[in-house]
Amino acid sequence: MLETRLGELHLASPLLTASGTFGHDPAALAFLHPGDLGALVLKTVTPEPRHGNAPPRMVEFEGGVMNSIGLENKGLAYWREQVAPKLASVGVPVVANAGGHCAADYRLMVEAFSDMPGVAAIELNLSCPNVVGGTQFSSDAVALAEVVSLCRAATSKALWVKLSPNVPAIAPLAQAAEQAGADALTVCNTLAGLLIDWRTRKPRLGNGCGGMSGPAVRPLATRLVWESSQAVKIPVIASGGAESADDVLDFLVAGASAVQVGTACFRRPDVISLIAADLRRILAEEGLRLEQMVGTLRWPETVSC
């Protein structure tokens, strides 16, 4: 009932993990029932190890979470030796996530992931707001097209591009990614924000600003999904505050073909299975199929966004 296609990838479910929320350990799948997760999207990996930003690196607020992790990871060599061998037996498609400082870094990561049999698709993290230069490619259509083209030439595997919400208009960037060879778009990354402790007169995150995720960003993410889906023909994967079956269906109606669930997993590691069960119930009760929902938003004829 939940089967979904993202280009050439056939998924058992439209529900995916969001990069960074399940780390690199496939053991996290022990929280979920078989068939509930469509793909395991792993945390960003960079060519060299990164220590991340100064603590505190995660703070809760009423609408979700602010983080400034800073793409902490052990680097490509560790990932190739310690993580990649575990991926072939995961049981669901695995999506590796590539990060870097420059276009050459991204190409290097894509080439490496392309050689790993356990990796079904590669997501380019071109939009992290928590590292220096993290949004240089997601805010300039020419720069974005350059790095996507380089990566496209380096792999025959499905290539996803994760876009930023921190831009004046997302459609030109979505189109640039599509024209450069992206197979799908992930919309979107975290929203840049600032939390302050008035008592100390200091930011609540050690890095100052950070990336906001969770329910508070869902209306913005929904708009960006709709705008992106109107601008391109490739699939759009929603990412931004989904925590229920209703949220997932909202994203599908807005134009998404699949939905990543991230911040909600911090509170309930089994939330994807809870959402999947509710989705099956709702679809059965309404007599609907998932593919009937995608892109069916009825926009008021006399109103503009």
Fold and architecture overview:
With 305 residues, the protein is an alpha/beta fold. It has one domain (4-53, 70-191, 213-293): Aldolase class I (TIM Barrel, Alpha-Beta Barrel). The protein has 9 helices and 16 strands. The chain has helices spanning 75-87, 103-114, 141-152, 171-179, 218-231, 245-254, 263-267, 271-286, 290-293; strands spanning 4-6, 9-11, 15-17, 40-45, 58-61, 64-67, 94-98, 121-125, 158-163, 184-187, 191-193, 196-197, 202-203, 210-213, 236-239, 258-261. The chain has an 8-stranded parallel beta sheet with strand order 3-16-15-10-9-8-7-4. Strand 15, helix 6 and strand 16 form a beta-alpha-beta unit. The radius of gyration is 18 Å and the shape is globular. It starts with a strand and ends in a 12-residue tail after the last helix. The mean pLDDT is 95.
Layout of secondary structure:
Layout (H helix, E strand, L loop, with lengths): L3 E3 L2 E3 L3 E3 L22 E6 L12 E4 L2 E4 L7 H13 L6 E5 L4 H12 L6 E5 L15 H12 L5 E6 L7 H9 L4 E4 L3 E3 L2 E2 L4 E2 L6 E4 L4 H14 L4 E4 L5 H10 L3 E4 L1 H5 L3 H16 L3 H4 L12
